Amino acid sequence: MRTFEDSYRHKGLRRQLVDIIRKKGITDERVLEAILHTPRHFFMDSAFDKIAYEDRAFPIGEGQTISQPYTVAYQSQLLEVKPFDKVLEIGTGSVYQACVLAEMKAQVYTIERQKKLFDSNKQFPYPKKYPALKFFYGDGYEGLPTFAPFDKVIVTAAAPFIPPKLVEQLKPGGLMVIPVGEGQVQRMLRLTRQADGSATTELFDNFSFVPMVEGKNN
Ligand code: SAH
């Protein structure tokens, strides 16, 4: 069950959360503002209400998780989101990351491979406040060729390698933020697609994501 009441207590906890992730090193004020305005407790079962603003991941069913707020902020900062950027997200999950990007005025195309999560997200009223946030059921390794090219791509599951089709779907000068690695720990990587189609990559900190799995799941 979920409840959609945003009390003063929730708002206060959100301000504390923003202070915590600022202290951990997030400096982009637009990212911090979006975290401040996104009621994270709406995105999980009401059983988590008291702890929804702790800086940690939580289970959301189907063996998946809502990412840690610090991780969401970290990836959003690396993505350098500008208003009207066309952003492809792989791994809709709870929709929290997608709403943070939409709050930063991005046009978000988000893909989920698990049918149950995709279907339950259709019943979720909160994201409807962002008309530019669009949901797709499919395999993130394929991207969304019909809607390409994108200014940015964000992958929110652990990728064993950089999916070539996602690089192809980036505009020249476009950025992809993706955790890469097969074990328990992945390295955050930012790829920039050059005008000639080649790519450069920068390495950032280690994180731990659920795996990016090939194919759709009914
Ligand atoms: N962005 C999410 C994080 C969810 S966890 C949030 O803010 O809550 C990662 C999600 O990626 C899971 O829901 C998982 O089912 C999904 N996923 C894994 N492999 C995928 C793939 N190949 N294509 C699309 N989604 C995938």
TrEMBL record:
Reaction catalyzed: [protein]-L-isoaspartate + S-adenosyl-L-methionine = [protein]-L-isoaspartate alpha-methyl ester + S-adenosyl-L-homocysteine
Protein's cellular compartments: Cytoplasm
GO aspect biological process, one term: protein repair
Active site: S67
Matches recorded under Pfam families: PCMT (PF01135)
Organism domain of life: Bacteria
GO cellular component: cytoplasm
EC code: 2.1.1.77
Biological role: Catalyzes the methyl esterification of L-isoaspartyl residues in peptides and proteins that result from spontaneous decomposition of normal L-aspartyl and L-asparaginyl residues. It plays a role in the repair and/or degradation of damaged proteins.
Protein name: Protein-L-isoaspartate O-methyltransferase
Gene: pcm
